[in-house]
Design brief:
Four copies of one chain form a homotetramer. The first copy, chain A, is of the alpha/beta class and about 350 residues long. Chain A is about 30% helix and about 20% strand. In chain A, the strands form two sheets. The first copy, chain A, has a seven-stranded parallel sheet with strand order 3-2-1-4-5-7-6, sandwiched between helices. In chain A, a hairpin with a 5-residue loop joins strand 13 and strand 14. Chains in contact: A-B, A-C, A-D, B-C, B-D, C-D. The interface between A and B is large, with 47 and 46 residues.
Amino acid sequence: MPKIKVGIVGGTGYTGAELLRILALHPHVTLTTITSRGEAGLPVAELFPHLRGRIDLQFTVPNDETLTNCDVVFFATPNGTAMRSAPQLLNHGVRVIDLAADFRLKDPAVWAHWYGMEHACPNVLAEAVYGLPELNRESIRQARLIANPGCYPTAVTLGFLPLLEAQVIDSSWLIADAKSGASGAGRKAETGLLMAEIGESFKAYAVNGHRHAPEIAQTLGQLGSGAVNLTFVPHLLPMIRGIEATLYARLTDDNCDLERLFAERYATETFVDFMPNGHPDTRSVRGSNMCRVAVTRQGASNVVIVQSVIDNLVKGAAGQAVQNMNLMFGLNETLGLDALALLP
Amino acid sequence: MPKIKVGIVGGTGYTGAELLRILALHPHVTLTTITSRGEAGLPVAELFPHLRGRIDLQFTVPNDETLTNCDVVFFATPNGTAMRSAPQLLNHGVRVIDLAADFRLKDPAVWAHWYGMEHACPNVLAEAVYGLPELNRESIRQARLIANPGCYPTAVTLGFLPLLEAQVIDSSWLIADAKSGASGAGRKAETGLLMAEIGESFKAYAVNGHRHAPEIAQTLGQLGSGAVNLTFVPHLLPMIRGIEATLYARLTDDNCDLERLFAERYATETFVDFMPNGHPDTRSVRGSNMCRVAVTRQGASNVVIVQSVIDNLVKGAAGQAVQNMNLMFGLNETLGLDALALLP
Amino acid sequence: MPKIKVGIVGGTGYTGAELLRILALHPHVTLTTITSRGEAGLPVAELFPHLRGRIDLQFTVPNDETLTNCDVVFFATPNGTAMRSAPQLLNHGVRVIDLAADFRLKDPAVWAHWYGMEHACPNVLAEAVYGLPELNRESIRQARLIANPGCYPTAVTLGFLPLLEAQVIDSSWLIADAKSGASGAGRKAETGLLMAEIGESFKAYAVNGHRHAPEIAQTLGQLGSGAVNLTFVPHLLPMIRGIEATLYARLTDDNCDLERLFAERYATETFVDFMPNGHPDTRSVRGSNMCRVAVTRQGASNVVIVQSVIDNLVKGAAGQAVQNMNLMFGLNETLGLDALALLP
Amino acid sequence: MPKIKVGIVGGTGYTGAELLRILALHPHVTLTTITSRGEAGLPVAELFPHLRGRIDLQFTVPNDETLTNCDVVFFATPNGTAMRSAPQLLNHGVRVIDLAADFRLKDPAVWAHWYGMEHACPNVLAEAVYGLPELNRESIRQARLIANPGCYPTAVTLGFLPLLEAQVIDSSWLIADAKSGASGAGRKAETGLLMAEIGESFKAYAVNGHRHAPEIAQTLGQLGSGAVNLTFVPHLLPMIRGIEATLYARLTDDNCDLERLFAERYATETFVDFMPNGHPDTRSVRGSNMCRVAVTRQGASNVVIVQSVIDNLVKGAAGQAVQNMNLMFGLNETLGLDALALLP
């Protein structure tokens, strides 16, 4: 089988670097181009020394011809970039996986509200598939354009999914208290992201509303329990990688066997590990494409609590993107994604 | 005014060390004895080098005579210790401040359930005052025996307090998602507390039920809105000091001016800082006795979100204990507690 | 005694914030102005929430009149700023303490080489006193202009000082392997200082030569052993506050009693704590103005190893600056500097 | 080719866990037994959740029969354990790789001095090969018994090696200032290893002499420059994985082309990456078997400075052990070791 020719647009951020780390070991991939306007000419391995000897490319200015020769192009760019280039690439038969938010919200008006700009290609948006394999595997296999889910949405959705599909919780008030490591904010030169600002401290942010809330609510609303009211609060952790989401809901079915529900729903999912009696910690998924979930009914109450952990850069971004690519190209879904978490 | 003669039982843990750090600079205190069975004979400053030159005492075996000569004795001991010594000290006219949990729960049966032993002095328990000055200031002034609040309960209670006193939220489901630094687990040689286990990771724990839940519920139930149903989930942060609690409730009074409510309730409280529009971070209280709170109504929903941060070793333990001592001895409540947070 | 009117130029960095934290509690100081061109109009406590309720000033544009009305002005500015304003302030009788490097190197040509610009006032430079109280206490009392030592130079110099004064080591090769927390790099929006870049990692930097090397060598050369050859390598620690320097030299006097030498040299120094048999850790000085040192002769070799720790923002910057101010104004040297280290 | 049957004695520590993480993905290995007296009966994946679904074994009590059926046994045990079992295993034709120190020092008397016990099998000690492939590759291929190098010795030796082999430095005084993450101390329930003790702090330790010093000196003394005088000081970093060693020596050959020397020496070494002009950071090797080195001549001095970084659990322990196993069994040296570093 010929190797898949892969291009990456926007390779200087953390999701770009993580794509490189994963794809460098993928047996069926040839990296053909990595673009960066700001760093054009710089060897990739000079910016990211962990890739020395494994990635010999230089960053290049994005170039139509180079990209249209790819089989698939990953966009690891700021929001609003992929939607300007995707239509042309699709026209050339190139498949597109956007790791940013351009194709995640189905309603262009909602997208414009949260992202502060008009959507550049609403018609293409309509065909985009939301790339959560545990939910949309068959559509992903057929897709030309993937909206790779956000990091928080991946962790929260996989936690609520079995409960909402089984219609055993009250969807009129779902709470997601989510916490992310600093890499989730990207590789940006901002004072607020400095070691001396984030280290040894913890806080909530965006309590008034975060862009990932409508994305999560959109997916949760498709799971069989109808529209949901979601309260979502993100927090910033004094560490680099990892998201933990603690989810709260009220059971409507008092007899529901929660452990069995989760165990059965995820029995065949390679990248979701249901932990009975567990307290999943983020390090147990660090560097891996795994999502680990646990579910608890606290005491005699009707409150169900779900814990869900992922590595925000892997299952929450680059790893899931590669999982989607594998599906799109008919490969084993786990290719390139067999790394175990780095613990300790 | 003669100085207050202070004894500390159990000086080798973090709350003991923090009492020493604070009391060493207190203008009206003389430290007369610091006990530790395990470290008797060891100079305090050898275990805690930051106290070199400031604390010249050695740890001693607890001794009735030495302790009964104190004006006040702080217990920075494991649960179940203070309740065995407090009655005798009180009989000798010594005031007692217990930083452990022995006198926090009013019902001895509930206490026995959560702490796994019978209460040693239920009659004395009845007179103990719960040492949250913002709630019980006048009782504290008269008290002989203080149950110093737990760290999580301090952060959570100060967050919900204005809402429950004003009876503007639905107390049938309150959620407290709380996160603590590692010092909250104490200075214990346990594998689970190692740097290599906790660093760069995050998890929930005690999701099935934590001892601080009944303590919080007991206090919240006294605030005017009646008994509460509380869902409490603690989490472990990869850092040393600090608690953040994110609290969720549903408003029952749609017209409530939340900012005004909090601002007025805490207007005269030195150690509670209401931050309009803020996202309090734990570093803004690190090493200080301050609790900072913020309140938000998310979007158009009826959900109110409170953020509350404290330093678990100061306002959550030793600082609040000294605040209580100041009140008990008719001193300015802030004596010894004027340190600003260490930021960055 | 009337309070000292203090101005701070450049209050938005970490050394500025630390000056504010210390001076807010200083009994003989009135803060009259804090300048920042970039943040003029912003309340100081909005940028630094730990100062809420304690510092009511706003940042202002630097203003000649306001500054010349001060008794002393601290410069917490980038290199090259103080040297442009100091002469005028001195002419108005205002004392100046520069926390940057403008007045540290005696030779303007050397300064120009390392700092990449001509010195703006070589004549004023000549009268500047290097503000290391343990070395220059009497000159500091008389000084109008203080060059506050760099953070690395403070730690390294206090470590080598007893050995060079006693002329017991071979000054033809001194090695200082120094490590600093991230706050030493300042509050700058640079990618290299992000949590996700610095956390959980360690490296040397500026191995080819660091600006602090000539500063250290200049001071060491004045200590009685003649000119020194110094190898200095700084490293970046995955933490916020603290410098540790491990120093290596060869003993020339085989009979030297190292412990006695250090103990006697620092016997009367409040802010240098010699620890016999110790391994000083940086947390034992976190937030305090203390320098802790230990000295070891390894095995039977003639190699002497000194460990020296400080908080880079306190004894390495703002605390030492206040210590200098106290000396210049005839106050007790320790005023405002009695905080114990925050441990844990 | 039949798979190699591998046993691990002492699987509950960090080096044991790391062996499992690496070997689980090794294409030519079958894990047959993992022993632990303390945790016998416990599924491995319960202690180490990152191995869930990948390692199905339980810990067992060490058992002669099970171990003698292995092709190779790794000892990830405390010092003094492997030397009691190795002779018997060797007699049964089982190859042995000891990750502890039992076979590292050639002189049993020196070993007894540093490790506080008599050596149990000095005759077997004589045939042990020091498993640093970059130095002893051919001997390793033939070895029955490997002394896997210590973590500090690996980093320090690979840094000094080109200089000593080329005889271009003065070996009468070599200095190694080394820093390690907390995982280097192992998974032991000790107060001194707690997050709240190590986090946000830094210190030297064992300044009087560390067990790795004689091991390093023994190897350096074999490199062609004769016996060396080594000053070695280890430090503890507030992070989990990684060692950085900064090495100092004086050049004796003023014309030596340092960059060329290092580049040529390591040109064919897969796991040593010489970085011209670089400042290697530990994160660039986190989770990988790579050692990255840089060399600098500071200014016009004759001082040469080498920086060397490894992951203490991989190239400093389990990864190097697998590299040795590959060599012993005639496999490609890099099998199972192709993971790139996890950055950020």
